[in-house]
Structures are given as structure tokens and as C-alpha cells.
Design goal:
The chain has 71 residues and is an all-alpha fold. 79% of the residues lie in helices and 0% in strands.
């Protein structure tokens, strides 16, 4: 098996980025639950941003699938 130079660095960076995205997603979900129970103002702000990001991702996903014609 031949080693490709720089692959280990790329894999490490990808793992760091994906871990960061996971931490942000879990933190956003925690803030949504806490805001539903009446948390502080900053928690409600993070929850609002999390819900908005989810709506934007969902609307972008539906736009991408609407032109395919396959059901």
C-alpha cells in the first residue's frame, strides 16, 4: 500500500471540522430545549439561530430536489 503525502493532515483537519460541526449542532439542540423551558436571553437567541439555520437547510434541500421529477 502506497502512502499519499498529506493525507494524514487532510484526514485530521476533516475530523476537526466535522467534530466542530457536531458540537455546534448538539449545543444548538440543547439551547432549543432549554429555551422552551424559559432559559436566559442568550439561550433563546442561540435557539432562534439554530431553528432558523434548520429552516434554511430544509428549504435549500427541497429546492434541490424539486427539479428531479423522481418520486
Amino acid at each position: 500500500m502506497r502512502r499519499v503525502p498529506g493525507t494524514a493532515w487532510g484526514n485530521r483537519m476533516l475530523l476537526i471540522v466535522l467534530s466542530g460541526v457536531l458540537v455546534l449542532a448538539v449545543g444548538g439542540c440543547v439551547c432549543v430545549v432549554r429555551a422552551a423551558r424559559g432559559g436566559p436571553r442568550w439561550v433563546r437567541g442561540v435557539a432562534k439561530a439554530t431553528l432558523l439555520a434548520g429552516e434554511l437547510l430544509r428549504s435549500g434541500d427541497s429546492r434541490g430536489r424539486s427539479g428531479s421529477g423522481d418520486d
